[in-house]
Design a protein that fits this description.
The chain contains eight helices and 17 strands. With 298 residues, the protein is an alpha/beta fold. Strands 1, 2, 3, 4, 5, 6 and 17 form a seven-stranded mixed beta sheet that branches. A five-stranded parallel beta sheet has the order 8-15-9-10-11, covered by helices on one side. It has a three-stranded antiparallel beta sheet with strand order 12-13-14. The longest helix has 23 residues. The chain is elongated. It starts with a strand and ends with a helix. Bound molecules: flavin-adenine dinucleotide (FAD). Flavin-adenine dinucleotide (FAD) binds next to helix 1 and helix 8.
Length: 298
C-alpha cells in the first residue's frame, strides 16, 4: 500500500496531525515507539479541557478519537530509516518492515539531556522540573532550588521568581552568573551556591536535600533544573533538512520543511514546548499536507 502521509511520532503533534489528515480524506500511517518526552511526569497542565491529566491518559483519549477513522493505520514501532526517492519515501522500522508513503510529517519531539548529577533522574518530573509554565503553580508555596549549570541562568531565575521568590541557585561549580547578576540576586535575597554538587538525596521521587562535595547540605523539596534539548530522532540531520537558530527543523507556518513532501511539527520544529502548541503545530502541518495534495491534483 502507498500511504498518502506517514506521521512519525505519536505525541500531541503527531496525534493531532493524524486526526486532521484522516478527516481530510488522506490515508495515514502513524508510527510511534512510545517514548514520549514527558513520560516521567505525573500530570500535564495548560491544555484546556485536559488540565492535570496524566500523559498516558492524554494519549488514550487521543487514540479513542483516532480509532473512529479507518484511514489511520497505527503501528507501535520505531522508525530506523527514511529513504527518499522520486515522489515516494520508504520508511524502515525496527522489525525490518518497509512502508511506502507519498509525504511525511516528522513529529518525533525532543529529548532532554539532564546534568550529570547523581540522583537527578529519581526526582526529575516528580519534584524537580524544567518548565515553570508546566509545573510552577504546584511549586508556588514550596522553597525552591534551581540547579543551573548551563543556559541563560539569570533569565531562568527571573522567570521562576514569578511563581516563588524563595529560590537558592546552585551552579554546581560552574560560572553561570556574572558578578553583576550575582549582585542583583543578592539584593533580592536570592542565594547563589557555586559549590560542586555530590548528589541529590530523595525518597520516592521527593527531593529532600542537595549534598555538596565540600560537605555542605541544602534542604529543599522541589525546584527546577536547566538542561539541554536534542532532536529525539536523527532524521532531520540525515535527510539534510534546514534547521532554525533554536536547533529545530526550519518550517513555514504550515510545517513545510526544506524538502518537498517532508513536513515537521511539534517540539522538534518550534516551540515553546507545550502540549497544546505541539498539537496545534501538528494540526497546521496536516493542513499544509492536504493543501499541497489539493494544489498538485486539482
Ligand atoms: C517533565 C516534562 C513535563 C512537561 N509538562 C508539560 C505540561 O504540564 N504541559 C505542557 O503543555 N507541556 C509539558 N511538557 C512539554 C510537552 O511534553 C511537549 O511540549 C510535548 O510532548 C511535545 O509534543 P511532540 O508531539 O512534539 O513530542 P513528544 O510528545 O515528545 O512525542 C514525540 C513522539 O515521537 C516518538 N518517536 C521519536 N522518535 C521516533 C522514531 N524514530 N520512531 C517512532 N517514534 C518516534 C516518541 O516515542 C514520542 O511518542 C513537559 C515536558 C517534560 C519533559
Amino acid at each position: 500500500m502507498l500511504y498518502d502521509c506517514a506521521v512519525i511520532g505519536g505525541g500531541p503533534a503527531g496525534l493531532n496531525a493524524s486526526l486532521v489528515l484522516a478527516r481530510g480524506k488522506k490515508t495515514v500511517l502513524l508510527l510511534d515507539d512510545g517514548t514520549p518526552r514527558n513520560a516521567v511526569t505525573q500530570e500535564s497542565h495548560n491544555f484546556i479541557t485536559r488540565d492535570g491529566i496524566q500523559p498516558a491518559d492524554f494519549r488514550k483519549a487521543a487514540h479513542a478519537d483516532l480509532n473512529k477513522y479507518d484511514a489511520i493505520s497505527y503501528q507501535k514501532k520505531r522508525v530506523n530509516d527514511i529513504i527518499p526517492s522520486e515522489d515516494v519515501f520508504s520508511i524502515r522500522t525496527n522489525d525490518d518492515q518497509e512502508y511506502r508513503v507519498k509525504t511525511m510529517i516528522l513529529a518525533t519531539g525532543l529529548k532532554d539531556v539532564l546534568p550529570d548529577i547523581e540522583g537527578i533522574h529519581d526526582v526529575y518530573g516528580t519534584s524537580l522540573f524544567a518548565c515553570p509554565f508546566c509545573d510552577g503553580w504546584e511549586l508556588k508555596d514550596t522553597p525552591l532550588v534551581y540547579i543551573a549549570e548551563r543556559g541563560p541562568v539569570f533569565h531562568g531565575v527571573k522567570m521562576f521568581s514569578n511563581w516563588n521568590k524563595d529560590i537558592v541557585v546552585c551552579t554546581n561549580g560552574k560560572e553561570t552568573l556574572s558578578t553583576e547578576e550575582k549582585e542583583i540576586l543578592a539584593q533580592k535575597q536570592i542565594q547563589v551556591l557555586e559549590d560542586e554538587i555530590l548528589r541529590l538525596q530523595s525518597e520516592n521521587g521527593q527531593l529532600k536535600k542537595i549534598q555538596f562535595k565540600n560537605g555542605k547540605e541544602l534542604e529543599r523539596e522541589a525546584g527546577f533544573v536547566s538542561y539541554d534539548m536534542q532532536q529525539a530522532a536523527p532524521f532531520a540531520e540525515r535527510l539534510g533538512l534546514e534547521m532554525n537558530e533554536m536547533g529545530g527543523i526550519q518550517t513555514d507556518s504550515y510545517g513545510r520543511t526544506s524538502i518537498k513532501g517532508i513536513y515537521a511539527a511539534g517540539d522538534n520544529a518550534s516551540g515553546p514546548p507545550q502540549l497544546i502548541i505541539a498539537a496545534s503545530e501538528g494540526n497546521k502541518a496536516a493542513i499544509g499536507v492536504i493543501s499541497d495534495f489539493v494544489e498538485d491534483s486539482f
